Each structure stands twice: as structure tokens, then as C-alpha cells.
Amino acid sequence: MATIRFKNVQHAYPPPKGQDPVYALKEVSQVWEDGSAYALLGPSGCGKTTLLNIISGLLTPSEGKVYFDDQDVTDLPTSDRQIAQVFQFPVVYDTMTVFDNLAFPLRNRGTDEATVKKRVHQIAEMLDLTANLKKKASGLTADGKQKISLGRGLVRSDVNAILFDEPLTVIDPHLKWQLRSKLKELHQQIGVTMIYVTHDQVEALTFANKVVVMYDGAVVQVGTPVELFNKPKHTFVGYFIGSPGMNFLPCKIDRGQPVFHNNILATSHPVSDDLNGRTVVGVRPEFVEFADDGIPVVIEKIEDLGRYQVVTVKHESEVIKMVVNEDQRIPAESPKIHFNPDQIRIYCDDWLVEGGDNE
Ligand code: ADP
Ligand code: MG
User: Fold this and answer.
1) CATH number, domain at 98?
2) What ligand has the least distance to the C-alpha of 45?
């Protein structure tokens, strides 16, 4: 096992003739600590697969270095990296039995048959494949085949890391939930570094100790689910995490406090007045409430989601979402809203403004 480290890694795929290269990864310096469970979260096309393939060695980055502990592995072939990788779609040998498919990564490295048998049975048990071990893989459903792929990724115990690239895409929702819990459980048992790529925040937040959020070829924040919720470092994180996402409203800064359409929004985290760039104030819908003394709004929409309601309101032309508990009253006349001063964040050109009291 090893700590995996990226130092100024960038990657551009070869451009079509005559065009400039476009960087799929802009610049990533990132440490993947040995034994942690990471989720790599971001929208389609932001560079997740590119990053994963650089870890496993399927891709050599155009720039920068990759280290496993102190060893520079940037030019080391995949076969020498001891990485298991599970792809989005099943990779199985159709003509082989399920047993032989699962045994393949072990036999490939000369593991003795007694150990092969033991490990294959353990993994098959975990993935509910025991009854199918003697069947040809070709006879299994798409779900079943993807379980074999997962099993092949999990069967070796001597790997530096296991990489999962949106592995549950083809799996039906109920089984998805089950398998995700199993992966998490397995991580707790074996403690191998796992990096789990997904574009689904729920999947990321339930699987990982640490979530790495990517946007447009860059890592914008690494944090626990709570940190990402409470203190998004970039507006994209605020918008992408949470449902609904964070509200962002244009503001000016006056004496450290944000001013939104002539309304001073008291904040416990004052910032400097001379910020150079576009400033917005960010507040999560959970921290906006109705108050007698507040900013007048018009109610646009109320969605009842059971335990809570999502209320959409407008002030001037700005839309603000609120999460309101079912026991809270929604005012019928002249509604006004208030933002929790502890939960107001200020962003300049999309990055959180730190410093001052803005811890
Ligand atoms: P993700 O996995 O987050 O969806 P990818 O890493 O697959 O993102 O892709 C990142 C960017 O690189 C995208 O713009 C994609 O179109 C581009 N890209 C990916 N693979 C290739 C390739 N083999 N050749 C050229 N461009 C590619
Ligand atoms: Mg991908």
C-alpha cells in the first residue's frame, strides 16, 4: 500500500491537426492518503476518468509527476503499479466461468490455487455470486457481469489502491444501494485506499471519508461531507452539493458586510472592503428563514417534500430558495426573510473569501 501523490499534474489529449491542445486536467497537486476512502465527484467531462487513468498508468500525464510514497511512478507501466481498477461497464471474459473470471487477477500473478480458491469464495460470497461460480459469465445479466468486474477489482489483497470509475452506472437502483454499502464495509475491513468516481453527490457523500470535488479539469475542494456543506470553497461546490444547492446573490461589500440590493446582510465573517472582482454572497437554503424584520420577498413556489418544504421566493429579480421545516409557518402576507449571520459566505470571482474572521 502507498500514499499516492500528484505534483503539478496536467493532461491534454492530442488535439486534432492544427488545433491547440485543450487541457482535460489543468493542474492537480493532490495527496491520496494511504487507506482512505475517497469519492471523486464532479459533472460529466470534468476530468475524473482522466485523473483515475493517470493513477493507474493507463495514461501518462503531459506534465507533472506521480509518486507512490517516494517512488516516481510517472513512467511506470500499469502492470507494475499494483492498482486494481473497475470501469463503468463490465470487463469480463464471457467464455470463462464466473470463478475463473474472479480468479484471473490472482492467477495472473502466480497466486497458489489454495489461496485463489479461498479469496474467490470470499469475494463471491460478498457479492452474492456464489451460486453462479460454475456458470459461464456470458449467461449473466448486465448486473451480474458488473458484479464480476467489481469482484475482479476486489479480489487481490496486495494492491496499492482500488479505483472505481462510476462502477454502478449499469446496476439497478436497489442493488446499487446494497453494493455501495458493501464497498464501504469492505473498505472498513481491509483498509486499502479506494477512490470512487461518481457524478452523484449522494453516492459520494455516503461512500467516502473525503470527497474530492472536481470542476472543469481542476480539483476545487477536498473535504468531509460536512465541510463541503458548511464551507464551500468555490461557488461550484455550493451549487453542486446540497439539494437545492446554495443561493448566490450579487452583493457589494461595505465595512466588511455584504450589501444585497440595499439590504445589509449581517455576517459573523466580515471581509475586506477592497476585493477585486465580482462579489456574491452565498447562503444555503437551510439557513434562510421567515422573520418579521427582514428583506421583503414574493413567494413564487412551495414544494412539499414531506419532512420539509422548499420555498422559492424573489427579491427584486433575484431568486432565493429556502428549506422550511414542516412545523414552520409560511406567512400569508408581506413575507420577509432573514439569513443566519453565521452561515453567510462571501465569494469573489467564485472563490470563498477567507481571512479576517471568515474562518
Ligand atoms: P469525466 O470522466 O469527468 O466525464 P473525462 O476525464 O472522461 O471526464 O474527460 C475530460 C475531458 O477530456 C472531456 O472534455 C473529454 O471530452 C476529453 N477527453 C476524454 N478522453 C479523451 C480522449 N481519449 N481524447 C480526446 N479527448 C478526451
Ligand atoms: Mg468518466
Assistant:
1) 3.40.50.300
2) 1
Query: Do both 175 and 90 map to the same domain?
Result: yes
Instruction: Say how far apart CA 345 and CA 352 lie, in whole Å.
Output: 7
Q: Rounded to an integer, what distance in angstroms lies between the CA atom of residue 283 and that of residue 22? A: 34
Say whether both 260 and 230 belong to one domain. Answer: no
Instruction: Examine the fold and report which residue of 235, 266, 299 is the final residue of a domain before the chain moves on.
Output: 235
Mutation probe of ligand 1 site: the residue of 19, 23, 50 with most atoms within 8 A of C-beta: 50
Give the pairing type, strands 63-68 and 218-223: unpaired
Cα 165 to ligand 1 centroid, rounded to whole Å: 13
Domain range for 202 is 4-235
pLDDT along the chain (359 residues), means of 10: 95 92 94 96 95 97 97 96 92 95 95 96 94 95 92 92 92 86 88 93 90 96 94 96 96 93 91 91 96 95 93 96 90 94 95 69
45 within ligand 1 shell (Cβ under 6 A): yes
pTM reported for the whole predicted model? 0.91
Based on the fold, state whether residues 38 and 182 are members of the same structural domain. yes
The pLDDT score that the predictor gives to residue 358 is 41
188 and 47, same domain (yes or no): yes
Of the CA atoms within 13 Å of residue 179, those in its CB half-sphere come to: 28
Q: Decide: 204 and 41 in contact? Cβ < 8 Å.
A: yes
Going from the Cα of 181 to the center of ligand 1, the distance in angstroms, rounded, reads: 29
Ligand 1 atom 1, closest CA:
45
Q: For residues 230 and 255, state if they share a domain.
A: no
Q: Point out the domain boundary residue: 204, 235, 266.
A: 235
Cell numbers describing residue 34? 494511504
